[in-house]
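Human: I hope this is not a bother. Would you mind checking the protein record under this note? Thank you for your patience.
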Amino acid sequence: MIPVPSAKYRPMQPVVMPFDMSGRQWPSRQLTAAPRWCSVDLRDGNQALAVPMNIEQKLEMFDALVKIGFKEIEVGFPSASETEYNFMRRLIEEGRIPDDVAIQVLVQAREDLIERTVESLKGAKKAIIHLYNSTSPAQRRIVFGLEKAEIVNIAVRGTKWIQDRVKAGRLPGTEVTFQYSPESFSATEVDFALEVCEAVVAQWQPTPQAKMILNLPDTVEVAMPNVYADQIEWFLTHVKNRESIVLSLHTHNDRGTGVAATELALLAGADRVEGTLFGNGERTGNLDIVIVALNLYTQGVAPGLDFSDLNGIRAMYEKVTKMEVPPRQPYGGDLVFTAFSGSHQDAINKGMKLQKEAAFKGQWDVPYLTIDPKDIGREYGEIIRINSQSGKGGVAWVLETEYGLALPKPMHKEFGPLANDHADKLGREISAEEIHALFNEVYVTQPGAKYHLIEFHSESDRLKPPTARGEAILNVDGEGVTVRGTGNGPIAAFVAAISPLVGPFEVIHYSEHALGTGAKAEAIAYIQLKFPDGKTVFGAGRNTSIETASIGAVVSALNRAGKK
């Protein structure tokens, strides 16, 4: 039995929010522009892998991040290992870093590590040196055993060590931006986080022309996302020299609300976002930058990142990280554009058809789909998939989009349940190929059926009204049978010819369309018959001759009706 939570855990607000936020502004704001983005895949994401990426894999990832459009990329922790250091040197010495991309490196507030980090950056055109130290009460008490003043001193001393090396010309030709993070900001008393950051700002002396970055991490999610937004808004309304500061976010996903925390904190006034592709990172992961960027996109805001080939990006990510994108991961998962529910399928089907009309003027408005799958390189064929819970509209959608079979709407009610029953018997989803094969078996090839059309031809007399004479050769239970009849057209002539054999019936629906183009293209016909007892049944026929296809559809329906 789980323990009583109030006896073991305490809520965060009394600890980190000892201030009045009744005048908060962020709830009434709207996001109208994208933030600055920084990928931390090669550092934060990499350190979370069971088997970290090797240098070649890191290079592949770096090139992909540049192609996506990231202008700031945290490439690693050069002082942590030879692999990290050598990767940095290869990026610089091989000229792989575009002039407009800044590489970011992480370092603790230790002089030997700062020295090694500065060495690794020689020759870089643009660099962000990211210094951090932990600030929360738990870290101060449990990990370091230090008082607040000592924590402030660590941060200021580390800043000065970096500053001294930059001023001494240790990185000639490099445009250096300084970034500081009070690690575990989200669990730190916000007034103390402000005190530490302002001490660092006072040491670095940024200007509006040469800003520094203050990164306020939600290192471990310990409260609801609105609390993080309040922390950010309070910080921004109290920090000095705001015009010289880029306020950056770095959220994790321990409570499953990393995206929400980031979006609310952007409303609170933040300028920049750090995160990873598909949310890779320690514990439950970092912020998924793909989600936040495409969330902006669906609201009409250009994100500044190119995810038009999300399948290719995902393939790269899975290859180099050995991680898998979950099937329900927003935007990137296999099933996020897939509907199994019948009512959802019907709504999507109708929405997609109406989307093609000029009245929409390009505006996306399809039920259950927040984004056009084509915009991120996904296929419409992925949208609707069939299992025993699927609806008739979904089955028809698959046949039309994958195979060009435009079943008449009344036919949906007949074939849809057949596909559902087939999936139910198999106990799994059925593929488009299996649905198509089932349609052909039920309506076209009909193995074991009583009647099979061998041949049909007709002649028309130019009378008023015109008269058609039709002759058909059928295989009936393995024997050849010839029937003849007349009517006002080929179908009516065949009905008259076959009725003495099977009994009376009438054609109540007929439609046909081509399957492809060219002289050898097939046509398909759909016919619905009605019998004296009120029973109705559909049939379908395929042939390069539309006339033969139509007669085949009548034979198909008679077989479906079980005529003897």
Summary: Residues 358 and 364 are 12 Å apart (CA to CA). The radius of gyration is 34 Å. The chain has 19 helices and 14 strands. The domain at 451-560 is CATH 3.30.160.270 (Double Stranded RNA Binding Domain).
